[in-house]
Every structure is written in structure tokens, then in C-alpha cells.
Amino acid sequence: SDSTADLSPADGHRARELDRHILHSWSKHPATNPLAIARASGVRMWDHDGREYLDFSSQLVNTNIGHAHPRVVEAIQRQAAELATVAPATTNLVRGEAAERILSKIDAMAAVFFTNGGADAVENAIRIARVHTGRTKVLSHYRSYHGNTGAAINATGDTRRVGNEFAVGHVHCFGPFLYRSEFWAETPEQEAERALQHARRVIEAEGPSTFAAILVEPVPGTAGILVPPPGYLQGLRELADAHGIVLIIDEVMAGFGRTGEWFAHQHDGVRPDLVTFAKGSNSGYVPVGGVIIAEHILETFRERPIPGGLTYSGHPLAAASIVASIDAMTDEGIIEHAAHLGADVLGPGLRELAERHPIIGEVRGRGCFWALDLVADRDSRRPVDASVVAGLKGALLERGYLPFTADNRIHVVPPLVMSDDDARAGLAILDEVLAAHASAAP
Ligand code: PLP
């Protein structure tokens, strides 16, 4: 039940008090997060005082199916009573079913290696590519996020990789971003060509035979929801093929319906060698991730074992939640709904906001995966200061809109199950908050 009658401010007070025992991710200690969330259902969350929020963040862009989906909850409960944990090498039905469900949504892939989340999925994809090729280097984008473990944080292109210099062989390039293109591009086609030429030059200069993998998000998410121009991913595929390099598509954030397809790279018709996933595969009800492996890569492990494994690889609770989640998404048409929300409600609604609010420099995205790139000045495209985003975030929260913000951006990334009416209600709150900001500005 999503009754909130028993939520008590005393629990909220106690939750904040006990929070000092936790060192939070990416935070100073003690943290100052204003939210104390007690409960959630569908697209709504309630804090301990009973205040309601519409979730336009999907938390860390992972609760694709919404909160407390009854089929997923029931599957986890049933599995917990039956068999909660079993050693990773054991054959177990629900494990096989989880892999089978995943493979049914993607063409021409042969097996799944399960992990505990996204970073270790990336870690193992890089390892598989290195074992398969006998090479070391990985090319990835500066504008990217791939996780916060050894190789994954080094593959990440943003400043968070500084200070994590334990992994070797990482090379970066500037992937496509027309709105803030480095060089001469004025059209999407030119930006695709600019970025491909750049990637080609970097690989040639470093030595093509030293590269194990090209690792890219099909739509860089944390870096700003950068939908690639047509032809870019296909161009990377050709570059990889020309030099015997493994193409890893990191679908941790964009996968499982976020963009309105099961996998974001399916919009581009590109064929990956390895695909990493996590978040949306079971909407985070149990931590899980993994690597989907093409047959020709799997061949390598018919001759030698994969040099890696995890105690919780293929965890039964995670597996049960993946099966239930994929079945529910399929039966309820959730992916199709995400595509509809993007095409008919969020996309047009956000573009309309941009017409009224000059602070919005660009609207980009698809499905339930959108970013508002906020600028101090439309001509120079200078990003707004962090304090502006912090102010907007506070105002949205006050009105019951739970936002996702990063740098100078608001990412509009609700669960895929959001109704058209709730999406419109969120757009109206955004409109109100941007208008209040404009009228308060000096
Ligand atoms: N890869 C991508 C594309 C991501 O967006 C993320 C997390 O945001 C990760 C990897 C890391 O996943 P996790 O935080 O589950 O380790």
C-alpha cells in the first residue's frame, strides 16, 4: 500500500540524526541532503513528514519501471524465501532465465556475465576485451561517465578521474556535442565527421594495434544527454573493424527503455561486440549489472577461463527481479510508452519552455532522457553558474518536483511509467520555477 498516514516527522528527525553515521557518495561529512525519503510508489515519493514528490530523476536515472512495481516486489519476495543466495558457479533456473530474457531483447548476442552494478560491468567488459585482443589501450570520450572503480573511472572522461591513476592504457577523445563543438562543426553531419576524424587521428597516433577497445555510451548521460548525430556510432563500428578493436557500448544509463528502445544503440542500427548494463535492467530494486557478449568474443572463453568473478555474480534476487521487470516492461508496453512520452509530451513540452525562457540554451534528448542546457547568455552559450542550478533545484523541490541536476543542466529523466498528466504537471512546475527565476533576476 502507498498509504502515508503513518509517516511521522519524528522518524524524519531520527533519520537525519542517524545520517551522521554514513559517509555519503561524493559528499563532505556530514552530508546536508535536505531529503529524508521514507516511501515510494510508481512515480511518487514521500518524505518522513508525508510531503509528496513527483520523481523526475528516477533516482540516479535507474528506476525505469517506477517504484514498488508489484510484480517485481513479489518476484523478489518469492525468490528470497526460496533461495536468496547461492555460489556463482552453481546452475540455477532463475539465473538462466534472467540471461535468456536479456538476450531476447538484443540481436546476435550469445551470453551474459553478471556483475553487481555498472562500474564493475565496465571493468569486466574492458577485461574481456583485453583478454580477447591481447592488447591494453581503451579509447573513450572525455564527455563520459563509466563508473567509479579502477579502470571504469579512468575510462571516464570528466574531472573525477583525476586522482585515480591506478589503471593503465586509457586514451580519450572529444565525442560529438554540436551545441558546444570544439572546432568547425555547424551541422550534425559535420559534427559526426569532426568527432570521427578526431577519434581516427587519436587511434592512428597512438598505434591502432595497441587498442583493445573503443568504449562509448550510446547517449552520454551524466555528461549531458548527448544524443549522437546520425552515422557516428556506425563510424566507430567501422573504425573498430578496421583495426580489430572491440566495440563496447555502455548502456548502463541509456539501456532498458530509457530512450524509447530496449537499448539506445538500436536507434542507430549499430552492432556492438560487448554491451554493459545495470540500472534499468531491474530498476535498482536489487543491485545488479552485467556484460552482454557477442558469440565471436565468447569463443575466447571456450579455450580459457575468464580471469574474474564476483561472489554475487548472478545473484538470485537480482535475477528474479530482472525476469519480472523485463516481463512487466514487455507486457505493459512500457518501452513504447517511454517513446510516446518523449515524442508527444516531454519533447514538445520542453521545447515550448525553451521558447519562453531564454535561460534554456538547448533542449536535447529522446524518450524519457532529456537535458535542459542552461545558459547565462544565449549568444555566447556561457553556462549558468552552479548557484543558479542550486537555486532552481531548491525551488523545484519546494513545489514537489524531485529534479536531477548536473553542472549547468537540469536532466528531465522520469520513470518510464509516468502518465502524460504527471509529465504535464512536472512541465508546469518547471515553467513556474523558470518564470520566478527570470523575474527575480537582477
Ligand atoms: N556507466 C554509465 C553510462 C553510467 O551512467 C554509470 C552510472 O551512472 C555507470 C557506468 C556506473 O554504474 P554504477 O554507479 O552502478 O557503478
Automatic annotation (TrEMBL):
* Molecular function per GO: pyridoxal phosphate binding; transaminase activity
Q: Name one GO cellular component term.
A: cytosol
Keywords recorded for this protein, A-Z? Aminotransferase, Pyridoxal phosphate, Transferase
Question: Per its UniProt record, what Gene3D superfamilies does this chain match?
Answer: Aspartate Aminotransferase, domain 1, Type I PLP-dependent aspartate aminotransferase-like (Major domain)
Pfam families (UniProt xref): Aminotran_3
Give the family, as the similarity comment puts it. Belongs to the class-III pyridoxal-phosphate-dependent aminotransferase family.
List the PANTHER family.
AMINOTRANSFERASE (PTHR43094), AMINOTRANSFERASE CLASS-III (PTHR43094:SF1)
The protein here is known as: Aspartate aminotransferase family protein
